[in-house]
Write a structure and sequence with these properties.
The protein has 593 residues and is α/β, with parallel strands linked by helices. The chain is built from 25 helices and 14 strands. It has an 11-stranded mixed β-sheet with strand order 3-2-1-4-5-14-13-12-8-6-7, with helices on both faces. A 3-stranded antiparallel β-sheet has the order 9-10-11. α1 runs antiparallel to α2, α6 runs parallel beside α11 and α24 crosses α25. The longest helix has 25 residues. The chain is globular. The protein starts with a strand and ends with a helix. About 5% of the residues have low confidence.
Length: 593
Amino acid sequence: MAKLVVLKLDGDLEIGGFRASLEIKEGDRVLIEITRSLPPNPELAAEMQRHWQEYRNLGLVTRIKPGSIKHNFINPNKFSTRLKEIKESGEKLGNLINQWLKSEQFRDIDRGLREELNRTEKVRVLVRTEDNYLRKLPWHLWDFIDRYSFSEVALSPIEYKSPQLLPIAAKSKVRVLAILGCSAGIDIEKDRELLKSLPNAEVVFLLEPKHNQINDKLWEQPWDIIFFAGHGETDEDTGRIHINETDSLTLDEVWYGLKKAVVNGLQLAIFNSCDGLGLAQRLDDLEIPQMIVMREMVPDFVAQQFLKDFLTNFASGNSLYQAFREAREKLQGLETDFPCASWLPIICQNPSVEPPTWNDLIPQRRGFNLFQIIIQCNFKFKWAVLLLLTGGSVGWLYGLPKLAVLVNDFGFDLYQKGDLITARKAFLLAEILNPDNRVVPYTLGWLCQDMQDIKCAREKYQRSAKLGFAGAYSQLGRLLIVYDKNYNGAVNLLWQGLELAKDDATKYSLLKNIGWARLEQGRYEEALTQQNAAIKLDNNRASAYCLKAQVLEGMNDKKGALKEWQTCLKFADQKIADEDVWIGKARARLNLK
């Protein structure tokens, strides 16, 4: 389960500043509460206004209201100059944001965040505020969000109501109502094609509908997701969507229909249109659990790419927040032609609601797997069912090991989908079925490590190592390096594992960790030898390059170290805890943001 960070900022940016309060929760347990303040910052407010005005002046063809679309064809030289100005303005804005959040009055909150949270943990950060400047602030530029790569920011109101939701009805597909509004000058057919390709989804399309058609559909049946593509705008803090060439709507005009949709189980509303913060301001009254909107004018291609990547990630089993972050960050690749693309999408969250996964929206699909049923049974019934599955007492000795493999594979599938609780039950059952299976405790160790239960991880790796699994030695060695600083103990254990290792992947991991321990001991020549040996086995993995760069720094070979940092950055994956740390170091050494 992701930890929840609630940062409540009550006040205003220009004059009075903010009363700032921090709360960190894990489930229902409050881990920390701090109340401090943030000073006013009129310079930040002015710079943000200037930046977004320069963005609007670029003249990009966007999903703003049809009458506002201006095809200002700027000559290439002037456009290039404006792009440079926006980039410089963005860098200045980022610096101002981080300077402000390093204010003396806010320091205890910043320190509390970094001390309480691990950089490998999944974290949802809710910024609760009514200040319009803070709602448009690109919070992802805060170095805390940048460094904690499994975190993501959402906006929430200061005051809110908990929606009165009916239980999600049993069904076989996610129900999506897709409203494809006025498409003058943009291509919303791409949105339609993507929605049609969603797995386990039933999508009903309304093409340039009338007001009454939308209202009727909202009342007609329960919806899990409501999607709008087309032109939109915010006028004097009121969000408006253009549903066809002549008509537009505010949320107030479909108020009762949306309230009914929320009561019937609506979980997510996506407005893939321009300038959606005005729509989001009605989130608190409508009690919509989650909304995704665009902060500013959004170019058509950017809107399409974000939708594709977000829905693909979300439907593949990623959490809503992690799917959103990956889709948002991927937009950075478009910023040569579409500046600030990754600044545009934002989640607006009702603080009382836990975001669903895609599978949560299809409850019928869960519970019909035989292994799921067995895992949830009481002990005696569990053994009775397993006895039958393995052919009675005659087939007991022959069937259990095979069944253990099947249950372990089933658990691993759950683990990859993020259902760590049920996956753990499956692995524990597999361990009971075949206590001599050396892979099962190793997999359990990985899961315990993901859940930040290091004691459990160590116990499971030790059991796997005693059964002769070489990979477990590598993981135990890493724990000794990272958590115990016992480098001699790690090296002794890793050499034992190397004698057992058969495949190159395991040998790579062991050699890399031996070199890591030697690096920490300052024995650079030995460390370099082991990292080079690991790279020789696999030259497409990041870890050995990242560690080799640090070894060369220790040997005062700065030029060689920079080369290794470049390769480290090329192959590193921020989802891997160690590599995420090294990505930060590599960027710092290479002077990259």
